[in-house]
Structure prediction request, 511 residues.
Amino acid sequence: MGLQQSLLDLSDEPMFFARVSGGVPNGELYWRLITLDFFDGINWVPGNQSFSPRGERWERLDWRFRGESVPVSARVRIAGLREQLLPTLYSPVDLRSDVSLIEDSFRVREDGSIGLDVRTQEGWEYEITAQVPRVDVARLATIGGELSPIFREAAEASVFTGRPVRSEFEPRPDDMDRWLELPDGLPPDLGLLAREVTAPGITRFEKAVLLEAWFRDPANFRYSLDVSTGHDALDLTAWLTDPESPNYRTGYCEQFATAMAAMARTLGIPSRVVLGFTPGEVIRQPDGSEVVVVRERNAHAWVELWMDNHGWIRFDPTPRSDGANPSLVGSAVGFDPRLFLPAPSDPAGLLPGDDVPVELRELGPEIDLEAGDPTPALFVPGTDSDLGRAAWVVLLLLAGLGSVPAIKAWRRWARLRRLRRGDISAAWAEIVDRLGDLGEDLHAHLTPLELARRVDPEMVPLAARYSAAVYGDRAEPDGMGVFTRAEGVLARRYGRTARLAAWFSLRSLRR
Prediction:
């Protein structure tokens, strides 16, 4: 699977039909052809896995999912598909067919893929039974008998209802390092970006959901089939980090799967790319039964990451807007993990308690009600909004200890808590401070809308919601959405070096 537009210009032609029975809704069933585990820097290809001889079939035992799974049976009828691989569900455990070319010659690869000696033909039918994982998010979110920090924050906000689940440790397969291999000469920027995106995560699962949420955010990436090809367009690191590169952060499923799987490996998370089909269209028959129609346009690539004590977990990083490819974050986790980051640790030990001390709390934008100017001001100049002298001493000491970033991280965490409670001014305050630390001239005479238009039109929705809330006393929905969109502007507009330097700037702390 190279990035060669092999999944472009797909039609509505049916590839196969299926009647499914079991405990998983038809609209959640992905259909697999094969897993790809070797990455050469551009292409993902199947690694060297053996096909089992007759009598020693099905997925290799120590690669199987270790949590709860659900048996699902399907009767499949081939239509337009012409492959030497049969579409299956997650992990097949039985296959039967009246077609002798299937029954007598099928072989099972170690990953559970089913191969044939010939290409499939229209009208062929077979019955398959498979074990489909039932992902236990609470179990994945448990560390040391407690919920990991992000999930604990979400539970405290009543958006995650799972409880810690203890489980016995199970060693990972001996050859798991094969799913961590990366080509020599891969630019270090890829790993640096992966660590930046997942820095708030403590466990591999937290890092994985942060990575998927980052890819699925339309403020960061755009799904499109109208992309260029050529060597420059296939440079993965440039596609992710260089705004001047062809198709910058714009593409289709192969590129998103390639990027997420490679970034996961830089974090020490075993990964593989899966080629197959998204859940097809469910058509109800006159007798009330359902038939799944999987079309050529359902062809898809996604990612599986190995989680110790669990097995291979499906993640889908492609940010399609039609809902055809449900993400783990959206379908199982149920909340955006980036909105429930835990309070950062304080190396100096000067910021105890659940909130930032009052001396360091954000004073926030205030409404300037000077005659003739009823618009919300960016900030109120003068000594009234400055930090006290004692706080200045603390800040200087902290700066000497290199703790300015810790103060800002605490401040951002406190603002996100306010934002989750509906305070849109916290979001605007964070963006204004970030702009100031990045060197932007904030022009105190500008209204929020005027500043947003000057910086980037993508910031206008946040400025508009903030203005409506503080001037019109009107609650505005989707505060988190417009805040994330504005943060995406900062990531695109300023380089990583500038953003890092801004964390050490005292400009926003002086105001």
